[in-house]
Every structure is written in structure tokens, then in C-alpha cells.
Write a structure and sequence with these properties.
The complex is a heterodimer of chains A (317) and B (483).
Chain A lengths: L1 H30 L4 H12 L6 E4 L2 H4 L4 H8 L3 E3 L7 H14 L5 E6 L23 H10 L1 H8 L10 H16 L34 H16 L3 E6 L13 H14 L3 E5 L4 H4 L13 H18 L3
Chain B lengths: L5 H16 L5 H14 L6 H20 L3 H38 L17 H16 L9 H9 L1 H4 L7 H9 L6 H34 L6 H32 L17 H7 L2 H12 L9 H19 L3 H23 L8 H23 L3 H12 L14 E2 L2 E2 L3 H23 L2 H7 L2 H18 L13
Helix pairs in contact in B: 1-2, 2-6, 3-4, 3-5, 3-6, 4-5, 6-8, 9-10, 9-17, 9-19, 10-15, 10-16, 12-13, 13-14, 14-15, 15-16
The chains are: A alpha/beta (317), B mainly alpha (483).
Amino acid sequence: MKSFIFRFGLFCALFVLGLTAFSTFLKVGQKHYDSNADLKLRLLLDVKTIDPEIIVFGSSVAEGGINPLIISNITEKKSYNAALSGRRIIDWNSIAFSFLDYTKNNKVIVLDIFPNVFNKTDNLYQPHEFYPYLNNKFVKEALSAISPTYYKIATLPFYYLTQLNSKIVLNSIIGIYDLLLNSQPKMSEDYKGYSNINSNYEKGNTSGLIQTEISQTSIKLYEKLILQAANKNIEVLFVGMPVYHKGKPHYNQLDSIYNWGTIWSKEYENVTYLNFLNDSSIIYQQEYFANNTHLNKNGASFISSKIGNYLNKNKYE
Amino acid sequence: MLFNSLQYLWFLPTVVLIYYALPAKHRWVLLLLASYFFYMSWKVEYIVLIIFSTLVDYFLAIKIHKAKAQPRKKTYLIISLISNLGLLAAFKYANFFTENVNQLLSFTNSTQHFPYWDILLPVGISFYTFQTLSYTIDVYKGKISPEKNIARFALYVTYFPQLVAGPIERAATFLPELKKQVKFNYNDVISGLRRILWGLFKKVVVADRVSVIVNHVYATSGEQNGLTLLIATYLFAFQIYCDFSGYSDIAIGSSRILGIKLMENFKAPYFSKSMSEFWSRWHISLSTWFRDYVYISLGGNRVKVSRMAINILVVFIISGFWHGANWTFIVWGFVHGVLLLMEYFLAKKSTIKLDLNPTQKMIRMLLVFNLVTFGWVFFRADSIQHSLFIIKNIADINSWHFNINLLSEVVGGIPLVTMPKLILSVFFILIMLVMEYGLYFSNFRKRFFALNGTLRWSIYYGVSLCIIFFGNHGNIEFIYFQF
């Protein structure tokens, strides 16, 4: 039995050692992979150096639709766009709660409302981007709430290796390569998290009705975020993002979805609402849109100016 | 508790550690407790069914043994059969019968309809009822004496490695295994671990990976074409084999670590050169059960050829029905019965020499594999109509075209199966086939053990890493749990 215990123990120890090395390689590599999302996650969950007076959370609609540089110019306040493409509050709440936990300077959180904003997310978009931060309590909580798989990923050592794919490995190799060669990040922080969509309007596949939903999980998360912001005397500005007028009929219950901004602005003292859904100065201008729901560079400049002016008028005067 | 779950990853080592820490004569008590815990971790209430089955067969076997008059023995045996098969009928087949009776009633314009029973099928019921039945029948036939210790008999019924999906053990060989005083044996433990590793590879790296394609294609058969349906059917052949034989490997391996031998359930069946050979290699514990307790009871080979043919058909239809309460399983059993009979009659008439050259062997293997795969269509489809639809579409060669996007669903804009993933799955199937061939038909084992330790360890690490990195870890149940 002694021989068995020794050999089996040695076998397992070497195995665990190998897995630890590989998993560390993946974590460090992914963390330093140079994408917009990775950079934001690293800055907000790990380095925690991002602490502007105005911060934007949300999805790609906000990431490409709200330009913090313009807001900063108008308000003369530091601002940062922490919105993450392809994600909704169920996914991105961890970075918002992490930010609220450490922020000392923040005054305003800007959140986008768009047609699919309250859809339930069963399949996390690009989950591996969160894997290097599994020990972060906010990430652990957010992932676990999405599915039991993420609960395992967040709580069991090496479990995320079972979700491994070529993309994770490739990202990690590039990340480690960049880290070792100390190369300059391609995703410049000068953009302040803003993702410039430099394209003309594309109609896309919008035949028929696109079903949207209002999941209670999303609503509760928004309300939790509002309350935590209130505890830190932070204002929350909901921005009802414009939808191109020809695209609007393709979405069901748009009014109900956008009405949540009104509901919250009435219910919570720290909430205000700026709704562009029916703003005729933008929704008929095709040159502002990259597609029905996403603004391009021009649209983002236009709307960011409006947000900046609104903040100047209502929050900083 | 699934064998491919993290719970089992904790459960088995804990049981093994305590097992070997206990004095040898008391270890079986731990196994009994662990087995009850194992079953109750799935659904606590259903342990009552196992206890019922255990008590009925324990007492009836003693009664049979003690009874002097044959009619009395027979009466006790019939009570045992009714109790066990009644349990099976109630929990597994009640809704099937209700559905068919209701359908018959609807043909007669009757307004009378029997209600359905909303009940969950108890996991492993088909396995443990057959195991206890074989015990009572063997006692009745005088092949074995009844077990006196009720707790040990309870362990015979509930022994966790083989409780929910076999192998279906026989009391004559298994009860002595449970009684023996096990000493820690290095070779047994290592061999058990190796077997578990191989079983996990087959389950999570082969079966569960291809299940993504098979499930999607069969669920969307209306949108598929003949080629994609054919691919899914071939993949299902490997899925079901790797799923079930993988389970058996883990069961046998787990038990071997505990020093208790379980019978082999699969012996590379897809390398069979005839249908009869296939059935001597596929789900051996069930096919021998049917041979010993049904086929031979019906007269076996010692009857007229026409009667023997009927016996074979009856056995295969019952075997099909054992697999599930659906006409598809009955047809699957019938198809296999017919294929066996065809083979029997052809072999009788043919003058083909028995010693085949490698090419002939290969052709026959391919033929048997394709016939078996044809049968899997009925096994996998939801209904007879569904199976016929699939067969009809596969036969329509003009409709064939390959499109990788048809093979899986798209989640969050990303297809679950891509060409590299499909190629990788086929690669793993090939590895599995080569390994199985090596294990059963060549001196692979000898060569493997002749390798030096470092190389062997590298292979173990390689297989372990494949399980972690390439396995599908979605907690997918073993297919045979539903039987």
C-alpha cells in the first residue's frame, strides 16, 4: 500500500503541478491579451486605477455610442466608458459592483437602455475573458448566478480548463508574448474605453419581429446597482439609446422597455433619465447609425454632446 | 450521482480510503451504506423500491429453498416474478400501456380514457430487478443456496458501482465476491484506476462530444438531409457504445479498486464478424441473462427450427422492450431478431469456409457494423414514424449535401460544432477504435506493460488531459440510466 500511496501521490502531485502551471499561463496570458474587454476587466477588476467622475456601463450600444472624450471636454470631468460589447447587466455587473466597491471620485454612472437590454443571458458571451478574475468576489457571484457551470468554474480549481478552447490558448500565447516583450498596448487608453464604430448604416437582417424580454433578474440587478450607487452618493443617469426609425417596428415592447428609465427616475432620488428613443433630431438621421441600434462615430459624437450638456446642466451647475 | 460528476470524484476516493482503513470483515457494511447513499443522492424516496425488492426476494428465496413441494416452490417464485416485474411494469411501462389502450379505445369511438401516471422512472430499476430476479430463479432451480444475511443480500442488490446501469451480476459469482476478505492489491487498484480513466475518456471525450451533434440532428430531422442524418446515425453508433461501455468500464474499475470483480459487459462489439458474435460482445450481462432465463426456458436450441426462430424473436422483442417503453425499442429488438435468424439460415445453406482472410473479415465487420447502425435508427428515434422518416431521407441520395452548420445549434451566435471540432471528434473515435482493437485482438496489453514507467505515465497524463480539455463536461447522463 505504501508503494501505491507514494506512486499515486507523485502522479497526482505532478499532474496538479502541470495544471497549475498551465492554468497560470492561461490566466496571465488572457489578462494581458490586448482587447478592449480584457483591458477594461484588468483595469476595473485587478489594477483598479480607473476612477473617473463619470463612468459608463452597458453593452456595445454604449461602448460605441457614448464617447467619454466628448463628455470630458464638455463637463471638464474625467470620464471613462466601461461598457462591454456583447454583454448585458447579467454579465457585466461584476465590473460595476467592483468599481462601486473601490471608487472614491465617481459622481455619475451612465447606463444605456436599448431594445435587448433586459434579455436574460444563459450563455455568457466570451466567458474566458472573466476567467483570470475568478477569485474576485463580484465575478464569482455574477458568473455563478448565470449557470451552475460558471459556479463550478468560479469555485473549483482548474474547472475552467474544461471549458478550454483554441481561442483561449491563442489569446494567452499572444498575451504572454506581449507581456514578455513589454510591447505597447494596441488598445490605447487614450480612447477611454470608447470603441469607435466607423461605418455607415447597414440594415442587417431585420425581417419580422425581434423578440425582446424583460427579465426580472436584470431588473433586480439594475435596482441593486442604483441602491449601491445611492449609498455612495453617486447619481445614475439612464440613457435611452436611439433606435433608427425604420428599425423600431422590428422590436416588440420597446415602450415598456424604455419606460423602465422613467419608473426608476421616479422611484429613486439618485436616478435621472435621458431618453432618445423618440428624439426626432437623431432617429431619422441615417448617417448617425451603424445599424438599427448601434450609433456610428457621428451618432456617438452627437449623443455624447447631448449627454455632456445634460450633465453640465443638471449635475455640475 | 453520475460517474462523470465531481461528486463521484470525491465519493469514490472517500469510500476507498475508509474501506481499506476498516478491518476486512466489516468492509462490506461500508459498501452497503455507501451504496444506499449513492442511490439516495439521486432520489431519496425511491430507495423504498429497492428495499421492497430486496425484502421480497430475500424472504421468498428462503421460502423457496425451504419448501419441499415443487408447486409451493413454484408459487413463491411466481410471487417473486409478479412483485419484481409488477414493480417494473408500474414504474416503467404503465404509461406505455395506458397510451396504447387509450389509442385502441379511441379507435372504438369510446369516450373512456385512462389517466397517465405522472411519475419519474426510478434510475436502474431494470437492472436491479433483473439482478434480484436471477437470484430467486437460481435458488428455485437449486443452482445456489439463499443468502442468509439480509444485509449482505441488500448489498448484492444495491452495490453502487453496478447499481444503476449494470453489469447485471449473477448471485452465484457475485455473492462470493462480496463475501471474500479483500486485501489491498496494488495491481488491482492500478488496473481499476486505469479502467476508470479509459471509461471516462469514452464517456466525456467521445460519447458526450458527439451527443451534441446527434441530439441536434435528430431533434431537427425535418430540416436535415440524408447525409447529415446518416452522419448523425453513425455518430450515434459510437455515442451509445462509448456511453454505455464507458459506464461499464468505470463500474468495473471502481469495483476493482475495492477488490471486487465485476463481469465484463462489452468486448469490442463493433469488430464482430457476425450478428451472433455482436451479441456475444454487446451488453454481455443482459444478453446472457436473456439467454439463460428466457431463451433456454422457452426451449432454446433443443426444439424444432420454427420454434427456435420464434423463441429468438420473442427474446429479442422482450430485450428491446426492456430497453424502453416505446414501440421503437420493440422494433429495434425485432430487427435484431430477424437479422440473427437471417444469419442463422444463411449460414446453414452457405458453403463459405469458416477461416476468413483479413479482407473477408473486414468486409464482414463492416457489414455487421452497418446492420447494427441501421438498428440504432429505431433505438434513437422518437417514434416509428420518425425512424421511417430518417431511413427514407438517408435513402434519398439525391438530397445529400454536407453543411457543417446543420450539425449543431448556434448558441449566442456561435455554432457549437465547427469543422475542426467535428474532425477532432472523429479523431477521438478512431483512437478509441484502435485502442479497443488493440485491447481485445492483439498483444497491446503486453506491449503496454513492457513500456517503461515514464512512457506509461505520459499516456495516463495524455488521456487525463484529453478528458479535461476535450471532454464535454455538461453533466450529461448516461443513456442507459433511462433503461
